Amino acid sequence: MKNITIFLVIVLMFTTKLVLAEDFSITFANKYSMNGAVETPLGVLKAFTIKGVFSDSRGHTGVINCIATSGKNLDFVCDSKDEDGDMFYSSGRRAGDSGEAIITGGTGKYANITSQCEYQIAALSKVVMVGLITMQCSSK
Amino acid sequence: MKSIFIATILLSILTITSAFAEDFTLTQSIKWTMGSEIETASGKLKGVSVDGAYIDSRGHKGILTCIGSVGEVFKADCNLKDEDGDIVYLDALRKGVDGVSKMSGGTGKYKNVTANCVYQIANSNKEASLGLVTMQCSNN
Asked: A101: which of A42, A91, A140, B109 lies 20 to 30 Å off by Cα?
C-alpha cells in the first residue's frame, strides 16, 4: 500500500510538472555590431551589441536588444519587447554554435515567468554579421 | 464504369504529382540597405540590397544576397549559397508582408532545380533594417 502511494505521488508530481511546464520555441534574426576589444589575462575580450527581431511558437513577435562579450565564450544579457509592449529579460552563454539561456521574468504577461532555454546559431553570415538563431525553451 | 476510370486516372495523376513535388521551407535572417531613389513613370523607386543567412528544412544552410527595388512592390533577384558552396537563384516579388518567389536552377545540387514559393515577413525592425522571413516552397 505504501509503495502504491509513493508511486501515485511520483506520477502526480510528474503530471503536474508537465502541465505547468510550457515548451515553446523562438526564432531570432539578429545583427551584430562590434564595439571594441580589450586585452585580459584570459585573452582578447570583444564587446558586441546585438539587435534583432523574433517570432515565437506561442504567436508573439517583437524586437530584442542585447549587449554581449565574446572571449572564450559569448556571454550576453538581453531585453525583448513583444507586440503588446511586454518585455522579458534573458541572459546566457554560448561556446561554439550552441548555448544555454535563461529568461528571468519581465513585464506584463512575462512577469514572474522563468524559462530555461537551449539555442543554436542555425545560420550566420560573417560578412554582414547577421545570424539566424533557433531557441527551445521550457517555462517553469 | 467510365466515372470510376476517370477518377482512377485523376487519382494517379495527383499521386504522381505529389510524389515528384518536394515541399520544403526556408527561414531567413536578413538585413537590408537602401540605395538611391529615382523617379519613374509609376512613381518613386528605391534601390535596395539584402544580405543574410538562412536554413532550410532539407538540412541546408548558408548566406543569401539580393539586389532589388522598392516602389509600389518589392522586387529582387537573389542567390543563396549553401554550406557546400552550391548556389541557387531565385527572384522575389512582394506587396505588403506576403510575397511570391521562384527558384530557377543554380549550381551543383541545385542545377536544373526549380521551385515555386510563397513567403512572409514574419517580423521586421525598420529602425535596425532587420527582418525574419519564412518561405514555403514546392519543387516543380
From this structure: A42
